Amino acid sequence: MEAVVLAAGKSKRMKSKISKIFHNICGKPIIFYVVKALENFKVHIVSNPDMKEALEKMFPEAKVHIQQEQKGTADALSKAINHIEFEAFAVVNGDMPLIKGEDIETGLNILKLKGLDCLIFTSTLDNPYGYGRIVRENGKITIVEEKEATNQIKQIKEVNSGIYIFRTEAALRALPKIEKSSETGEYYLTEIIKYMEKVDTLEINSENMLGVNTRKQLSEVRRIMQRRIIDRFEYVTFIDPENTYVNYDVEIGEDTVIYPNVHLKDKTKIGRECIIENGNIIENSVIRDNVHIKPYCVIEESIICDNCEIGPFAHLRPMTELKSCVRIGNFVETKKVKIGKRTKASHLTYLGDAELGEDVNVGCGTITCNYDGYQKNKTIVGDRVFIGSDVQLVAPVKIGNDALIAAGTTVTKDVEPFALAISRVPQVNKPNWVKKYRETMEKKLREKNKS
Ligand code: UD1
Ligand code: CA
Q: Could you tell me the distance, in angstroms and rounded to a whole number, from the CA of residue 260 to the centre of ligand 2?
């Protein structure tokens, strides 16, 4: 089977610097979904010169043909039609990411069974504005574009979906006969049926043919695509699927529960029986089984092993690797760090360019001072180390197994196993100091007020 995707248009109505076919829906450009639906087809794409390279890179299997000037959909098809090898082929507009490959395969079969020249996919829309209308008169079908429609024709709710199946020979003969529109100067592919004998229509579900011409349509189509993606996960609980954002490539395991306003991006993989609470943004990360992510964390390019507990309000930056049962609490930031089993950093901590062993306790306010203004330096912490609150680890530095770092210590030298490291100004208590201080200050004030 063979198909031509028309994708060279100027996308004026999108009011965007980039072509509409490259606008993102659930982590992929619109054109990705169109070509994906045609995975059983030999695909031709008609492109404008600017996008050719990007399209060839994205779809190495497809043949990209160039339409120099955007003179309409008929002109676009003329750039690919001489390369068609099969006796019948489909034409699909490149701005319809919700199309179904099965619909098009059915269309091809109907065309052959009925011996048609052209089969037009149609749909009935409550609001047909913008679409070409299907006009039926004395058994003859014509398509009238919105711009050229009379008020009477505008009332018609049956529209051209922008998917067509052609008998190659009939299309080759009819295409050059199309004249340009006196209204817009464009060559409309919809005119082709005027020069064909056997034309029929096939009604498809209107959802599958929605086109993206404007930002409003982009958001409507995104919503439907998001629902389709979420519906794949029959074994996952989404508390509020309408307000959950799961990209195309994401994987999720059985019995995981996803709360509202969660964004799962790129190739993120979530394991089984996880709980991902509200507002989490997880990008390109692997979360293994039974992980609990409390609200409002940002997790980027990280690996989180089984039974970890993260958040609320944690920021796991790229190359964070947590072994099982690690606990990362609120206002903790990590970056390029490996953390061993059962280690806890429960509050207000920065761990960057570091390796921490198993069963380490990282006290509140611990900071790895990894940057000296020129380069990043490494901190290595052994197993069972206890780090008290408000500790600075000035890298490069190594803490041996079972060491204890007293609260408030600034560690600048390596610490050997089982040692206590403490760096504090010794504490001095001065009895009744406050009383004397207040007396002197109040006396000063009184003298000042008198003068
Ligand atoms: C088109 C149909 C309309 C149909 C609607 C369905 C025509 C004349 N009209 O209108 O009947 O109801 O689709 O969505 O075909 N393109 C090119 N080169 C060009 C012009 C367009 O490659 O010179 C491509 C565009 O990139 C787009 C596709 O063809 O992917 C359709 O063009 P678009 O401008 O979106 O057509 P519609 O006005 O939506
Ligand atoms: Ca369109």
A: 32
